[in-house]
Design a protein that fits this description.
431 residues; alpha/beta; 2-enoyl-CoA Hydratase, Chain A, domain 1; 2 domains; 6-stranded mixed beta sheet
């Protein structure tokens, strides 16, 4: 069984402040209170026996992971453990945690430390990486929404990304694109990497379209309050009235007709509940296909970062039916959030379909992957590290791919997004 918490995709994933005379500052008292309280709590914590924690981590990885040294050799792993043993006692708590993030990021895309489980705080804004940069989708200053993030605390955004990338657990390069914006919003990660020194003043520098700057110092929120406040996870694109592909983003699955194209969006690998189950929806689609007049089925899994793979079987069977699986009949939209059970679904279609055409971006997950995490509790710090316990080789056992690549590559620019236009879906319809 392949199960994973949605937070796993965001698992893992220089000082100075500058602003010109046109900058505006957005901050709140709540921001100061929440981050200052966190800092006081950490400062009063007892000393951590990091050597004992590293012993527990090393033993846990060796015990649980089916192949812990598939990416780096055992010799390199041992050297990293030895280096961490030397440096950790010299670091502050958040700096030390970054060492563990980087160490566990060597394992695979599911393994690592999950920010939601360690009690990290998220700045109250939403960022996304488009083809033309990192942009603000939501935040405390409405005039800054749609602007480009150019720096955090005076550190250029490209340098910020370079500092954060080694912390991110990943299967493919696309994992970095989806996780980096989230890590840029986490107070403890920015502090632990030295990007921010005062968590109450992160100074997100947003360049507006008119050339002016907004310097944002938002409040911080724990995981659950953030999800409630922003109506969704701090990764990927949010639900929005348009385009169509964002309009029901928070629903696990749904379908509609777009002229003569049947569009099926599949966001989470779950069974559903009540009358809204995968079996019921597949039955509806079969009935619609039987009526006729459907030129193509487009299945959109670009937001699908996993679940329990058992639940996608009815849809997979429908899509492999010659009623759908014929030349020009089946297009699959994939992207940077297609991960875990979502990418296994794509892999099965890639291997078994005679006609499926993939459109969009490369997937975050690899066709063959490690998953089904089990916890390793570090005894002194109390940090939980999640370690994959299973291997899925739904592609051929020797498949070297780290991602499923699209047959028709299409990516999203900030201009398209803020105009409410979806070039990926349009390409799948028009091809």
């Amino acid at each position: 069984m392949l199960k994973r918490t949605l937070t796993a995709l965001g698992v893992l994933m220089l000082v100075g402040c500058s602003a010109d005379s046109t900058a505006s500052t957005a901050t709140t008292d709540k921001a100061t209170t929440s981050t200052a309280t966190t800092a006081t709590t950490i400062a009063s914590e007892p000393a951590v026996d990091w050597s004992a924690d590293l012993d527990a981590l090393d033993a846990g990885v060796r015990r649980i992971h089916p192949n812990p040294f598939w990416r780096v050799s055992e010799e390199e792993w041992d050297a990293r453990i030895a280096s961490a043993r030397e440096v950790l006692p010299t670091l502050g708590r958040h700096q030390a945690e970054m060492v563990l993030f980087e160490l566990t990021a060597l394992l695979d895309g599911h393994s690592g430390i999950y920010p939601s489980e360690i009690g990290y705080h998220f700045y109250a804004l939403r960022l996304y990486h488009f083809t033309d940069g990192y942009f603000l989708l939501d935040g405390p200053d409405p005039t800054a929404i749609g602007g480009e993030l150019v720096a955090i605390n005076g550190v250029p955004v490209d340098d910020v990304a370079a500092l954060l990338t080694p912390l991110i657990a990943h299967d493919s390069e696309k994992t970095f694109e989806v996780v980096l914006p989230m890590y840029m919003m986490i107070s403890e990660i920015l502090e632990g990497t030295g990007i921010v020194t005062d968590p109450t003043s992160p100074a997100f520098d947003i360049l507006r379209a008119d050339g002016t700057h907004a310097i944002l110092n938002p409040e911080t929120l724990l995981w659950d309050p953030y999800v409630a406040e922003f109506d969704g996870l701090p990764v990927g694109l949010p639900q929005a009235p348009e385009p169509l592909s964002q309009s029901r983003r928070n629903e696990p699955f749904w379908w509609t007709m777009v002229d003569d194209v049947l569009y099926f969006q599949y966001n989470n690998v779950v069974s559903g509940e009540g009358d809204n189950t995968m079996e019921a929806l597949v039955a509806e689609v079969r009935e619609r296909l039987a009526v006729g007049g459907v030129r193509r089925v487009v299945v959109d899994i670009r937001h699908n970062n996993g679940g329990d793979r058992r639940w996608y079987v009815p849809l997979k069977q429908l899509l492999l039916d010659p009623l759908v699986d014929h030349p020009g009949g089946l297009y699959i939209i994939i992207g940077r959030q297609t991960f875990s059970a979502g990418v296994l679904f794509a892999t099965e279609l890639d291997v078994q379909s005679v006609s499926a055409v993939f459109v969009g971006e490369p997937t975050a997950g690899s066709p063959n992957l490690y998953a089904d995490v089990r916890p390793v509790e570090l005894p002194s710090s109390g940090i939980r590290v999640n370690v994959s316990s299973s291997y899925y080789d739904f592609a051929s056992p020797d498949d070297p791919r780290t991602a499923i690549e699209p047959d028709i590559p299409v990516e999203l620019s900030s201009a398209d997004y803020f105009a409410g236009f979806d070039p990926v879906l349009q390409a799948a319809i028009d091809a």
